[in-house]
Amino acid sequence: MSDFSQEEKVAIAAVKRASILTSSVFEKLVKNETLVKGDKSPVTVGDFAAQAVISTILHNAFPNDPIVGEEDASDLRVESGKAMKDRIVALANEALTAPLTQGEDPAWGVGPGKERTADQILEAIDRGNYPGGSTGRMWTIDPIDGTKGFLRGEQYAVCVSLIVDAKVQVGVIGCPNLPVDPAEPSKGVGCIFTAVRGKGARQIAFSSSSPGADGATISLSIPQTLELKDLSFLESVEAAHSSHSFNDRVAAILNVQQPPTRMDSQAKYACLARGQGGAYLRMPTGVGYKEKIWDHAPGEILVTEAGGIVTDSRGEPLNFGLGRTLGENYGVIAAAKTIHGEILAAVQKAQNEAKAKV
Ligand SMILES: Nc1ncnc2c1ncn2[C@@H]1O[C@H](COP(=O)(O)OS(=O)(=O)O)[C@@H](OP(=O)(O)O)[C@H]1O
Ligand SMILES: [Mg+2]
Ligand SMILES: [Mg+2]
Ligand SMILES: [Mg+2]
């Protein structure tokens, strides 16, 4: 049985290259480089190019593994998408052909001379079309999680996971805009969070040459001594993505004294894993939306390996074996082991109150 160290190494390299790409795209992004998808959500040249880069690297390193990726290239294959396509191909090639860094292997399809054709870049994006399922290996890619945060210049995350037989085994989250040290934000931004099942969770500073090389890697553990009154719920910025008012009620039931911390993307899971906030609450705003596996798989393993528990509002683990989504939406509750049960009970109490009102 693999110890998944090679998978982690490849995923970190892919997330790092894609994160450098997305940071540089933000500096240069122009208005006509963003599309609105069928579900009204935004997607930028950065999302497409980052998915192409990650998919190319994963496919070169693990040619038999299927990929569940958020984006697909259909909008780029039509005449109206040509300008965007050209830009995406240039950005992806720039990221793929950048010089090799320590630990990277040219067999992963990276380094000088590794340009791809436009067709190969579109193919790499579309390789993310795997429907998912309960058996075998599969990767997930969310090339930019929190695209709205990315466009606002706030938090977003580049997210990759490896799922084997419905269980997440490796998770890597790149947060280009996240302070390396929350206590001293002036120390700089840009971190990668990584976890392997049974082997713990770590934070690596972007500036570090490779994991563990220069003391810029820290092991993550969620403090188990936090009192409920000191919690600050980590929650979505977008009110449409998770119910703020429901969280307010849960906070009142638990006598939480701190205001919530609103942050886009799986940076919330990453911050929880390194001891910020104390809990992540994501309850549905209405019926119908199904959470996507790429929005939670890396976060689930990161928090679990840091000593937390991630469940839905029934107290059940998230089920990554149902396809591209988590199935019916029962929300997400993530917190330290010591307080997860009390938060779950408060969520269920708030749900019962809401039911009694209708
Ligand atoms: N209605 C609804 N309910 C719940 N979740 C939704 C909904 N619509 C979208 N999404 C997904 O939310 C992802 C963004 O993550 P967050 O909600 O944590 O960030 S944010 O603060 O709201 O920006 C976002 O991920 P990205 O598309 O990768 O940005 C979506 O997959
Ligand atoms: Mg999206
Ligand atoms: Mg997402
Ligand atoms: Mg996304």
From TrEMBL:
<feature type="binding site">
    <location>
        <position position="142"/>
    </location>
    <ligand>
        <name>Mg(2+)</name>
    </ligand>
</feature>
<comment type="similarity">
    <text>Belongs to the inositol monophosphatase superfamily.</text>
</comment>
<dbReference type="Pfam" id="PF00459">
    <property type="entry name" value="Inositol_P"/>
</dbReference>
<feature type="binding site">
    <location>
        <position position="144"/>
    </location>
    <ligand>
        <name>Mg(2+)</name>
    </ligand>
</feature>
<keyword id="KW-0460">Magnesium</keyword>
<dbReference type="InterPro" id="IPR000760">
    <property type="entry name" value="Inositol_monophosphatase-like"/>
</dbReference>
<dbReference type="InterPro" id="IPR051090">
    <property type="entry name" value="Inositol_monoP_superfamily"/>
</dbReference>
<feature type="binding site">
    <location>
        <position position="145"/>
    </location>
    <ligand>
        <name>Mg(2+)</name>
    </ligand>
</feature>
<keyword id="KW-0378">Hydrolase</keyword>
<feature type="binding site">
    <location>
        <position position="70"/>
    </location>
    <ligand>
        <name>Mg(2+)</name>
    </ligand>
</feature>
<keyword id="KW-0479">Metal-binding</keyword>
<dbReference type="GO" id="GO:0046872">
    <property type="term" value="F:metal ion binding"/>
</dbReference>
<dbReference type="InterPro" id="IPR020583">
    <property type="entry name" value="Inositol_monoP_metal-BS"/>
</dbReference>
<dbReference type="InterPro" id="IPR006239">
    <property type="entry name" value="DPNP"/>
</dbReference>
<protein>
    <recommendedName>
        <fullName>3'(2'),5'-bisphosphate nucleotidase</fullName>
        <ecNumber>3.1.3.7</ecNumber>
    </recommendedName>
</protein>
<dbReference type="GO" id="GO:0000103">
    <property type="term" value="P:sulfate assimilation"/>
</dbReference>
<dbReference type="GO" id="GO:0008441">
    <property type="term" value="F:3'(2'),5'-bisphosphate nucleotidase activity"/>
</dbReference>
<feature type="binding site">
    <location>
        <position position="295"/>
    </location>
    <ligand>
        <name>Mg(2+)</name>
    </ligand>
</feature>
